[in-house]
Design brief:
The chain is mostly beta strands and 137 residues long. The chain has one domain: Jelly Rolls (Sandwich). Helix content is 8%, strand content 49%. The chain has one helix and eleven strands. The strands form three sheets. The chain has a five-stranded antiparallel beta sheet with strand order 1-2-9-4-7. A three-stranded antiparallel beta sheet has the order 3-10-11. The radius of gyration is 14 Å and the shape is globular.
Length: 137
């Protein structure tokens, strides 16, 4: 998973499961490290999550723990301009994200730097390119 400078981001792994080219939906597993936080970002498209394993922790801009989602939690979420970070609880967390931009180039999420300025965007086409580059079809 690329960070703001294009190099691999810390504390995060990703496996794209499916690309729906007609509906413009990406289904992806994310793994966040235990007791760590991933990069700052904003979800700029609707998405659904299901916590497969572990505890999903979400932190607000001031660093406060905002929400804890245990394994088995499903959540449908609308796009938001609210920057946040997230990570695992006492063990690594695995989360199924269904990212729903419904468009080729509309950002799915924006990656932020330490000043919370947008430094990169992830779109459906970018996720599709990653998928095609890493999967054998």
């Amino acid at each position: 998973m690329p960070g703001p400078d294009g190099s691999a981001a810390d504390h995060i792994g990703m496996s794209i499961l499916n690309i729906d080219d007609n509906a413009k939906i990406v289904d992806v597993l994310f793994k966040f490290a235990a007791n760590e936080k991933i990069l700052w970002h904003k979800h700029t498209s609707d998405f659904n999550t299901f916590v497969v394993k572990g505890e999903h922790r979400i932190y607000s801009l001031d660093g406060e723990l905002r929400e804890v989602r245990p394994a088995g939690t499903f959540k449908a979420t609308q796009a938001s301009e609210d920057p946040h970070t997230e990570g695992g609880g006492d063990e690594d967390v695995v989360i199924l994200f269904s990212l729903r931009p419904y468009d080729d180039e509309r950002p799915i999420y924006e990656i932020l730097d330490e000043d919370h300025e947008v430094v990169a965007e992830m779109t459906f086409n970018a996720m599709k390119d990653i998928y095609l580059a890493t999967e054998k079809h």
